[in-house]
Design a protein that fits this description.
With about 290 residues, this protein is an all-alpha fold. It has 11 helices and 2 strands, in the order ααααββααααααα. The chain has a domain of about 190 residues.
Length: about 290
């Protein structure tokens, strides 16, 4: 039983971890929490459907179409909304991200309708048994793709010029600017990168649940995972996502299926009260 809980929990947790990475990647570089990220995730899944149904594109082309447009949309948000607000109070920026999310959600509801749309699985959803565990190839594909994306992100941050520029901005934006790094350009790319991470999460999870305009509520679970792991820790975002997925699944099995959603909010509140830095986060000194 516990092994099956782990398998199911890791599948959900991998998606939460991708969304959490989107939050953390963006926040560490810009100090902005993008509360519209979950709705961008939904939009990206709809873009796959639009490319397949209305443009008659193959599945792989539809995914590429979605990822490119999602990255461009993230950069457009930074250039068109967040950059003009860079001197505004933080609360104004938060409200702006909430407004972006609401506009996307209601725009999808108006254009695509409230009814669910089918999204094809990466692999067959037919289960098989291995070592007493019930495994689903489609779920294994979700975990595999998510892990590959996470590994690619860490390799890019460590070994590429763009990644090193991001790390420099993370550590000291002023110092990065002094040595010639364009901080506004890095911010725009971070918005694009965060949007791509959310897009991948949306494309992975859409076949497993109902693709509707309200699918973006998963963004709340990604936010909870980021808080749980530590909002300034990339490894913490992954650990927080996996732990949240397992905790949700265990609560659904041992307590009640209604607890699967409640556990996210309970962990979020408990972590904020008892462990503000998260499991892997660290306190950041601030000059006053």
């Amino acid at each position: 039983m516990f092994g099956q809980i782990l398998v199911s929990g890791i599948t959900a947790g991998a998606v939460y971890a991708l969304v959490a990475l989107g939050f953390v990647v963006l926040h560490r570089g810009t100090r902005v929490v993008h509360f519209g990220l979950g709705d961008q995730m939904t939009m990206s899944a709809y873009l796959v459907v639009i490319a397949q149904v209305f443009l008659d594109a193959p599945f792989a082309v539809a995914i590429l179409f979605s990822l490119v447009l999602s990255a461009g949309f993230g950069v457009a948000i930074e250039r068109g909304v967040m950059r003009p607000l860079r001197r505004a109070p933080l609360l104004v920026m938060v409200i702006a991200t909430l407004a972006i999310g609401a506009a996307l959600r209601e725009g999808l509801r108006a254009s695509m309708g409230p009814l669910p749309w089918p999204v094809p699985f990466l692999l067959t959803p037919a289960p098989f048994t291995l070592g007493g565990l019930v495994l689903v190839p489609a779920n294994l594909a979700v975990v595999g793709v998510a892990l590959a994306v996470m590994l690619s992100l860490f390799v890019a941050l460590r070994f590429t010029r763009f990644g090193r520029a991001i790390v420099a901005v993370y550590e000291n934006p002023t110092g990065a600017a002094i040595v010639g790094i364009s901080v506004p350009s890095v911010h725009a790319r971070l918005w694009g990168l965060s949007s791509v991470l959310a897009a991948i999460a949306g494309i992975l999870v859409a076949p497993l649940i109902t693709l509707s305009p309200d699918m973006g509520t998963i963004g709340i679970k990604g936010f909870a995972a980021a808080i749980l792991g530590g909002f300034n820790s990339l490894p913490g975002a992954i650990a927080g996502g996996i732990l949240l997925g397992i905790a949700e699944t265990a609560a659904g099995v041992y307590v009640s299926t209604a607890m699967k959603d409640i556990i996210s909010y309970a962990l979020l509140i408990g972590c904020v009260l008892l462990l503000p830095q998260g499991l892997f986060g660290r306190a950041e000194p601030r000059k006053v």
